[in-house]
């Protein structure tokens, strides 16, 4: 979803994220200049850095006033972002993507083999940074990488499966998207040495936000225009990834009409017809209701915490997401 980082409401966040950028670039500097170039490619392309922002904001829930992030919080955020970037390198190979963040994808510029190795290198550096933050953070990040793989594999297993269930869909996005956002918040709580129940609330917020974020993103693939998305609308349909709006439409009164359109040989005309059915049916509204429920669950978790700059920032992020949900519904 487009827009600035909603965590920018925190006065110190801009400076903290600048420190994240510097540490990101430094953390992937390798002895081989060519590996450094490939590893830094998507970092240089920019990004909102929502995940490291969540780590920093979660750690800031321990503070009574705004202050620069600790070195541990910045490093934790960098480790999380490296995992995210490494997963993007691998995703682009699987999707045969040509562009990422308005620049050539790594696989398009250097080939699949180098992209896979560079993605592995980013994950290795993330693990190295996590190890420096202690056994709990290292174990958490390793488990999260495992959940990312499980979620992505679950999606691949059910490609072009018109019988994909809602439970399978939710488990997939829980692994490939929500788990890393939940871990980003949890790492912030761990490095700030917060009480366990406080850290659990932050983890619930991050996971719920991630679930809502992915559902909204999947809705936008159906309802937004190609110009708004920066890629063809209905790309998920072409890839055989049937998301919540499609799953709920298939289960509805127009499911019998939609089902025969969803094939491996789907052409642009058939894709647009399928999009029209999903837009006209109640699947979009039902999916948006699910996203809204996840976002509200995240806000409810934050409401259990005392006021702090970090809670202010994370609440702003939740509000921004809810506004995105409402915009998708309009």
Structure characteristics:
mainly alpha, Farnesyl Diphosphate Synthase, 16 helices, 2 strands, globular, 330 residues
Commentary on this structure:
The chain is mainly alpha-helical. It has one domain (6-329): Farnesyl Diphosphate Synthase, CATH 1.10.600. Helices cover 73% and strands 1% of the residues. It has helices spanning 13-27, 33-44, 50-60, 71-95, 106-110, 112-132, 135-157, 166-191, 196-223, 226-229, 235-239, 244-250, 255-258, 268-280, 283-302, 309-329, and strands at residues 99-100, 103-104. Strands 1-2 form a two-stranded antiparallel sheet. The mean pLDDT is 90.
What is the CATH T-level topology? Farnesyl Diphosphate Synthase
- For the record, the CATH class is Mainly Alpha
* Low-confidence parts: none
Count, helices: 16
* Integer tally of domains: 1
Number of strands: 2
What's the arrangement of secondary structure elements?
Blueprint (H helix, E strand, L loop, with lengths): L12 H15 L5 H12 L5 H11 L10 H25 L3 E2 L2 E2 L1 H5 L1 H21 L2 H23 L8 H26 L4 H28 L2 H4 L5 H5 L4 H7 L4 H4 L9 H13 L2 H20 L6 H21 L1
Antiparallel strand pairs: 1-2
Helix pairs in contact: 1-3, 1-4, 3-4, 3-8, 3-16, 4-6, 4-7, 4-8, 6-7, 7-8, 8-9, 9-15, 9-16, 12-15, 15-16
Brief digest:
The chain is an all-alpha fold.
């Amino acid at each position: 979803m487009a827009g600035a980082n909603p965590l920018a409401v925190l006065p110190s966040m801009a400076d903290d994220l600048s420190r994240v950028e510097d540490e990101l670039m430094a953390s992937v500097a390798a002895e081989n200049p060519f590996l450094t170039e490939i590893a830094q490619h998507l970092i240089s392309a920019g990004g909102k850095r929502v995940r490291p922002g969540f780590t920093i904001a979660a750690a800031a829930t321990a503070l009574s006033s705004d202050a620069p992030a600790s070195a541990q919080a910045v490093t934790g955020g960098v480790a999380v972002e490296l995992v995210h970037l490494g997963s993007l390198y691998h995703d682009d190979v699987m999707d045969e993507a040509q562009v990422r963040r308005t620049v050539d994808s790594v696989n398009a510029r250097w080939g699949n083999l180098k992209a896979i190795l560079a993605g592995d290198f980013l994950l290795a550096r993330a693990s190295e940074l996590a190890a420096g933050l202690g056994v709990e953070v290292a174990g958490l990040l390793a488990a999260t990488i495992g959940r990312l793989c499980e979620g992505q594999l679950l999606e691949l297993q059910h490609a072009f499966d018109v019988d994909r269930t809602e439970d399978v869909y939710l488990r997939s996005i829980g692994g490939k998207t929500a788990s890393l956002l939940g871990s980003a918040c949890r790492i912030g709580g761990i490095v700030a040495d917060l009480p366990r129940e406080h850290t659990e609330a932050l983890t619930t917020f991050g996971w719920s936000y991630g679930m809502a974020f992915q559902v909204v993103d999947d809705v936008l693939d159906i309802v937004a225009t190609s110009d708004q998305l920066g890629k063809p609308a209905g790309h998920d349909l072409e890839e055989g990834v049937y998301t919540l709006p499609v799953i709920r439409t298939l289960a509805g009164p127009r499911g019998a009409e939609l089902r025969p359109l969803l094939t491996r040989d789907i052409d642009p005309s058939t894709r647009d017809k399928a999009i029209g059915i999903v837009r006209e049916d109640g699947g979009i509204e039902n999916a948006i209701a699910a996203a809204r429920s996840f976002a509200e669950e995240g806000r409810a978790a934050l409401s259990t915490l005392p006021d702090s700059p970090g809670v202010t920032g994370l609440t702003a992020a939740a509000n921004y997401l809810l506004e995105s949900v409402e915009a998708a519904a309009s």
